[in-house]
Write a structure and sequence with these properties.
- Helix 4 packs across helix 6.
- The strands form four sheets. An eight-stranded mixed β-sheet has the order 6-10-11-18-17-16-13-12.
- The protein is an alpha+beta fold.
- The chain has two domains: 87 residues, Beta Barrel (OB fold (Dihydrolipoamide Acetyltransferase, E2P)), CATH 2.40.50; 300 residues, BirA Bifunctional Protein, domain 2.
- The longest helix has 22 residues.
């Protein structure tokens, strides 16, 4: 018989079916073994009696098996259907599985290679896959080209303190923090480009929203101003959320997500300046000195005031990257998008086009001007207004899935204290 996916079991009510998968639950009674079989599409209860009972009784969790039997509707069974086993085949009898109930999160990260089989992780990774696909569709449908930039670089783009240094055939090089500088060169040939790629930040912090290797969706657009950039960011996030809602309500329910809250994620998002944000925070008992970047707890507080994503604009230029275009009041035409439960998921800006201003900003940050020669060339030959943003995909997954930590939003997280498994 042809093997079917478990999600198709209801289509076979009263008919024969062949399934294959892993033992998710196992309970032996008098003369009958109840097996909950799982594959990547779902679970179904199977009952084995007679000769098949003898095969099924000693099986342990995660044993790989095949089953042929008849589907019967049964409201008492998980999912409302049961497979009465005619034939059970053992592909691999597993040893005793090390993951049991009441395990710590740190232990589950130690055995992540096994924990990825769990329902919560599988639900998260399915949603994550859809998030990646939605980003691709969003930009391709709008005429953007996918562009790849180097992982090995010679310069910093987001501050030297978070650079991963590597020996590149005797020369000092770094793992890319962003595609930013190369993207600004590429728009003069392609105009509208995006990428989905890993970025690397050597941040010496163990928090619930930081990874040393994270997945980055970035976009750069020629002729696009600051207002249009903000609109693009909120449309992108809304598009991702709606795509997840269309295909993953079952997975969101497994994760205990507030689906109604996600259904409210639609443009326009509230907008306020950095100065206005500080004023609102102070009214709620959180005083932030002007010129200091917002912390996670302050970002979450702002989102709690609105109950949806929030865009904060016009930060002081001292707390933002050198390439952001200067605005009146010693601020920049840059913004962060903040979401409930997580905080910042997007950073974006209109780009500075003045060579003189870029030189001043680089000198203030202690950077060597010569290292940015290729970048400065983009301001010498036909420079145009342009803007771009970067979206942290892992944080988006953390937010949509309602996860306590970004470490649960990716298959195998990398942090300052974890590089295995």
């Amino acid at each position: 018989m042809k093997f079917e996916e478990i999600r198709k079991v209801p289509d076979y009510d009263g008919k024969k079916i062949a399934l294959r998968g892993w033992v998710y639950r196992h309970r032996a009674g008098k003369g009958v073994v109840f097996i909950v079989l799982r594959d990547s599409t779902g679970t179904v209860q199977c009952t084995a009696k007679g000769k098949e009972y003898e095969k099924a009784e000693p099986l342990l969790i995660e044993s790989a098996i095949t089953i042929e039997g008849t589907v019967k509707k049964d409201e008492r069974a998980p999912g409302g259907y049961e497979v009465q086993v005619d034939k059970l085949g053992i592909v691999h009898a597993a040893e005793r599985f090390p993951i049991t109930k009441d395990q710590s999160k740190e232990f589950l990260r130690d055995v992540r290679h096994l924990w990825v089989r769990s329902q919560p992780m599988a639900a998260t990774l399915k949603i994550r896959s859809t998030v990646f696909g939605a980003i691709d569709d969003f930009f391709r449908d709008r005429g953007y080209y996918e562009f790849q930039s180097p992982i090995f670089t010679m310069t910093a783009a987001e501050g030297g303190s978070t650079l991963f240094e590597v020996d590149y055939f005797g020369k000092k090089a770094f793992l890319a923090q962003t595609w930013q500088l190369y993207a600004e060169a590429a728009i003069f040939g392609l105009e509208k480009i995006y990428t989905i790629a890993p970025s690397f930040r050597a941040e010496k912090s163990s928090t619930s929203r930081h990874l040393t290797e994270f997945w980055h969706a970035e976009v750069e657009t020629a002729w696009q101003d600051f207002d249009a950039l903000q609109k693009q960011g909120e449309e992108l996030v809304s598009f991702i959320v709606q795509r997840v809602l269309e295909g993953h309500r079952a997975e969101l329910e497994i994760l205990g997500v507030d689906i109604k809250a996600l259904e409210k994620v639609k443009p326009p998002f509230p907008r306020l300046t950095y100065k206005e944000a500080l004023e609102k925070l102070e009214k709620h008992g959180m005083k932030v000195p002007y010129g200091k970047d917002l912390r996670t707890k302050e970002e979450k507080k702002l989102c709690a005031m609105y109950g949806k994503p929030v865009i904060v604009t016009h930060y002081p230029k001292e707390v933002k990257a050198f390439y952001m275009k200067e605005a009146p009041g010693d601020t920049v035409l840059g913004f962060d998008m903040l979401v409930p439960h997580v905080g910042e998921i997007i950073g974006g800006s209109e780009r500075e086009t003045s060579i003189e201003e870029l030189e001043k900003r680089l000198a203030k940050e202690g950077e060597t001007f010569e290292d940015y020669g290729f970048y400065m060339d983009t301001r010498k030959y036909g420079s145009v207004p342009h803007s771009g943003l970067g979206l942290g995909i892992d944080r988006v997954v953390q937010w949509i899935c309602g996860l306590d930590s970004i470490h649960e939003a990716i298959g195998f997280p990398r942090t300052m204290d974890r590089i295995s498994p």
